[in-house]
Amino acid sequence: MASSEWLFPRTTKAALAELEIPDTTAVAGGTTVLDLLKLGFSSSSRLVDLSRLDMREIAVVGRNLHIGAMVTNSTVARSDLVLQSHPALSEAILMGASEQIRNAASVGGNLMQACRCSYFRATDWPCNRRQPGSGCPAISNPMAGHAVLGTSPHCIATHPSDMAVAMLALDAMVTWKGQDNEGVISVSDFYRLPGKEPHLLSHLPEGALITGVELPRTRAARNSGYLKLRGRTSYEFASASVAAALELACGEVCSVAIAFGGVATVPWRDHEAEATLLGRPLSTEATNEFLDRIMVNADLRSETIHKIGLARGALHHLLERLARS
Ligand SMILES: Cc1cc2nc3c(=O)[nH]c(=O)nc-3n(C[C@H](O)[C@H](O)[C@H](O)COP(=O)(O)OP(=O)(O)OC[C@H]3O[C@@H](n4cnc5c(N)ncnc54)[C@H](O)[C@@H]3O)c2cc1C
Ligand code: SF4
Questions:
Q1: Euclidean distance between the first and final Cα of the chain, in Å?
Q2: Are 53 and 9 in contact (CB under 8 A)?
Q3: pLDDT for position 163
C-alpha cells in the first residue's frame, strides 16, 4: 500500500472540505476501503478518517428511527430500539461478515461497500467496475455468485450488502451532506444499475457524505425479518437472501415489502409484484406467483440458474415465519 497522509477532521464541514481536494478518500471503519488500497486499487494520497464525526446516534425522531452514519454495524444490530421496531435490520447485519468486522464497520461504509466479484479484486484481470471500459470477463466466464437480475452487458456483479437489502424492505431513506447542500435519497433510488457505467455505485453526489438513515416506524416494519442462504455461516456473502416486512389482517396481506439480496446487481425490490399479494391470504401459490413475476426477465446462465430456487426457498421460509408471528 502506497503511503498516505491521514487527516482527522472533527466536524462534518471540515471533513467535506478535505474531500473537495482531489485524490482524497473517506475512511469510516476501513474494512473495505483499506483492503482495496492494499490491493493497489487506488493510490489515494489523502485519507480522511471519519471516526471523530458526530454521527453516532440511534434515536426515535418523529415517526422515524434515526441511525447515524458512523454507528457501528454491531451497535445497530444490538440496539433495543432497532430490535423493537426494525428486527430485519438487526438480523441482516448479524448474518454478514464476522463479529470483529461488524465492530468496526459503519452504516455509511456498509452502504458504500464495493462489490465482491472475484475478477474485480484480481487486479491482473480487466474489470469495467475497477477500470471503466476495460471489459468484463464475467460475461463469458460467469461464476455461481454472479447476478441474474439488473445485469448489463458491462457488469453482472451482485450487490454485496446484507444491511442495504433490509433497509430497502424497510423503506429507509439515506440523508447526506455536501459542501453547500444536503439531501435525502430513498434506498430504493440510492443505487445505480450497472448499465454502461458499472463503476458508478450510487446516486450520492460526488464529495458528499452520508450522515445517516431514517427508517419509518410502521407495524409491518415491527414484523420484519431477514433470511440469508450462503455457502458457510460466517465470512460469507449471500448466495440469495430476502428481507420482508409483513402485516396481515384477518389472514389477508394488508402491507408487504420484500427485497432480495445476492441475486441482483443492486438490492432488488418490485413494488408492482408486491401489489399482487395485497388482499390475499399468504398462500404457497400467491408466493410462487410473486417470485415468478420477479424472475420473469432474469438473465439466467447455467452457473447462476440455481439462484431462483434459493430465492424461492428463502422467500417461503421467511414469509411463513412472519405470518406466524
Ligand atoms: C472478510 C469480510 C467479509 C464480509 N462479509 C460481509 C457480508 O457477509 N455481508 C455484508 O453485507 N458485508 C460483508 N463485508 C463487508 C463489510 O460489511 C464492509 O466492509 C463494511 O460494512 C464497510 O464499512 P466500513 O465502515 O468499514 O467502510 P469503509 O471501508 O471505511 O468505507 C467503505 C466505502 O464507503 C465510503 N464511506 C464510508 N463512510 C461513508 C460516509 N459516511 N459517506 C460516504 N461514503 C462513505 C468509503 O469512502 C469507502 O468508499 C465483509 C467484509 C469483509 C472484509
Ligand atoms: S461482473 Fe462487474 S465487477 Fe465483475 S468483472 Fe465484470 S465488470 Fe468487473
A1: 50
A2: yes
A3: 98
Please give the CATH topology (third level) of the domain spanning 56-325.
3.30.465
What separation in angstroms does the CA of 220 have from each of 88, 110, 244, 279, 323?
A: 11, 24, 9, 15, 11
Which ligand is the nearest neighbour of the Cα of 48?
1
Low-confidence ranges of the chain (pLDDT < 70): 1-2, 43
Q: How high is the pLDDT of residue 233?
A: 84
For the chain, give the number of residues. Answer: 325
Parse the chain into domains and list their residue ranges: 1-48, 56-325
Task: Render pLDDT for 247-279 as a digit per residue (tens, 0 to 9).
Answer: 999 999 999 999 999 999 999 999 999 999 999
Residue 1: the pLDDT is 60
**pTM score, two decimals?**
0.98
Ligand nearest, relative to CA of residue 197:
2
Q: State the pLDDT at residue 3.
A: 73
Residue closest by Cα to atom 2 of ligand 2 = 155
Q: What is the layout of strands, in order, in the sheet containing 173-177?
A: 58-61, 64-68, 209-216, 173-177, 182-186
Helix (H) or strand (E) holding 108: helix 107-111
Say how far apart CA 248 and CA 280 lie, in whole Å.
9
Q: Is 193 helix (H, G, I), strand (E, B) or coil?
A: coil
Give the count of beta carbons closer than 10 Å to the beta carbon of residue 283. Answer: 10
Best CA proximity match to 87, nearest among 166, 149, 178, 19: 166
Residue owning the nearest CA to atom 34 of ligand 1: 109
Cell of 207: 464529495
What is the reported pLDDT for 45? Answer: 87
List, in sequence order, every beta strand (DSSP E) within the chain. 5-7, 24-27, 46-49, 58-61, 64-68, 173-177, 182-186, 209-216, 224-229, 240-249, 252-261, 268-269
26 touches ligand 1 (CB under 6 Å): yes
- Closest-CA residue, ligand 2 atom 6, reads 136
